[in-house]
Amino acid sequence: MPEASPSALTPPVADRRPTARSHHGHEVTDPYEWLREKESPDVVAHLEAENAYTEQETAHLAGLRATIFDEIKARTQETDLSVPVRDGAWWYYARTVEGQQYAIRARAPLGGEPDVPPVLVPGEPVPGEQVLLDENLAAQGHEFFSLGSFDVSADGTRLAYAVDTVGDERYLLRVRDLTTGEDLPDEVPGTAPGATFSPDGRYVLYPTVDESWRPDKVWRHEVGTPAADDVTVFTEPDDRYWVGVGLSRSRRFLQIELGSKITSESWLLEADDPTGEFRVVWPRREGVEYSVEHVVLPDAPAGGRDALLVLHNDGAENFELVVTEVPARGAAPLSPGDATVVVPHDPATRLEDVDAFAGHVVLSYRREALQRLGVVRLEGAAGATPWQVDEIAFDEPLFTVGAAGNPEWEQRHLRLSYTSFVTPGTVYDYDVATRTLALRKRQPVLGGYEPGDYVQQREWAEAEDGTMVPVSLVWRRDAVTLDPSGLQADPAPVLLYGYGSYEISIDPAFSIPRLSLLDRGVVLAVAHVRGGGEMGRRWYEDGKTLAKKNTFTDFVACARHLVGAGWTTPERMVAQGGSAGGLLMGAVANLAPELFAGVVAQVPFVDPLTSILDPDLPLTVIEWDEWGNPLADPEVYRYMSEYSPYENVREDADYPRILALTSLNDTRVLYVEPAKWVARLREVGAPVLLKTEMSAGHGGVSGRYARWEEIAFEDAWIADALGVAGHDEDGEGGEDGEG
Question: For residue 551, what are the domain limits?
Answer without folding.
Answer: 19-73+450-722
